[in-house]
């Protein structure tokens, strides 16, 4: 009695598996696609050149671009517009130096060091990290003459080998970091 039940159950399971296998192979099955923007991306391929200006897609943002969070795109370019940005940027009225110190410690200190002397862990491995403040007994550093807006621009767009931190640090926090560098690190003597 036991064997007849097991044999019927085995045949039933085999029949179900065969039915699933046969229907799964049909080319007429419907594919359900969720989040179609992941399947059919509207973005241009960054490795291809556009048909109009013969430039790579990722090099320039289209005119009047609005960023994801709704604020206008940062209008100044990395090394080209440094002085223009320093003149034209409007400095906020208030700063949170404690928050600036915290963000500096996270994002800037690995290269520039805790005191801004370009003695961070990254600077020990890679040459070219520029000091933000003058170390005791050394000649004054160029960065000490930078305005608050210029420091903000460099933190936003980058300079030289340093990439900008606009994607990682919010706008007000970049101003806080710039104020911390100008009012705390560069004032210590």
From TrEMBL:
<dbReference type="Pfam" id="PF13442">
    <property type="entry name" value="Cytochrome_CBB3"/>
</dbReference>
<feature type="signal peptide">
    <location>
        <begin position="1"/>
        <end position="26"/>
    </location>
</feature>
<keyword id="KW-0349">Heme</keyword>
<keyword id="KW-0408">Iron</keyword>
<dbReference type="InterPro" id="IPR009056">
    <property type="entry name" value="Cyt_c-like_dom"/>
</dbReference>
<dbReference type="InterPro" id="IPR036909">
    <property type="entry name" value="Cyt_c-like_dom_sf"/>
</dbReference>
<dbReference type="GO" id="GO:0020037">
    <property type="term" value="F:heme binding"/>
</dbReference>
<feature type="domain" description="Cytochrome c">
    <location>
        <begin position="95"/>
        <end position="185"/>
    </location>
</feature>
<keyword id="KW-0479">Metal-binding</keyword>
<dbReference type="GO" id="GO:0009055">
    <property type="term" value="F:electron transfer activity"/>
</dbReference>
<dbReference type="GO" id="GO:0046872">
    <property type="term" value="F:metal ion binding"/>
</dbReference>
<protein>
    <submittedName>
        <fullName>Quinol:cytochrome c oxidoreductase monoheme cytochrome subunit</fullName>
    </submittedName>
</protein>
<keyword id="KW-0732">Signal</keyword>
């Amino acid at each position: 009695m036991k064997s007849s039940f097991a044999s019927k159950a085995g045949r039933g399971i085999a029949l179900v598996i065969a039915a699933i296998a046969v229907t799964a192979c049909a080319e007429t099955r419907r594919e359900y696609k969720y989040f179609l923007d992941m399947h059919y991306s509207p973005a241009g391929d960054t490795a291809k050149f556009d048909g109009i200006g013969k430039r790579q897609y990722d090099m320039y943002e289209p005119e009047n671009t609005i960023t994801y969070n709704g604020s206008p795109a940062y209008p100044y370019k990395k090394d080209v517009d440094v002085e223009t940005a320093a003149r034209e940027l409007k400095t906020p009225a208030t700063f949170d130096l404690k928050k600036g110190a915290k963000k500096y410690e996270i994002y800037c200190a690995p290269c520039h060091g805790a005191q801004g002397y370009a003695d961070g862990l990254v600077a020990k491995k890679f040459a070219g990290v520029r000091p933000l403040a003058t170390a005791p007994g050394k000649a004054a550093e160029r960065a000490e003459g930078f305005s608050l807006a210029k420091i903000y621009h460099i933190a936003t767009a980058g300079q030289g080998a340093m990439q900008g931190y606009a994607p990682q640090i919010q706008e007000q926090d970049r101003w806080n970091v710039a104020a911390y560098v100008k009012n705390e690190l560069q004032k210590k003597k």
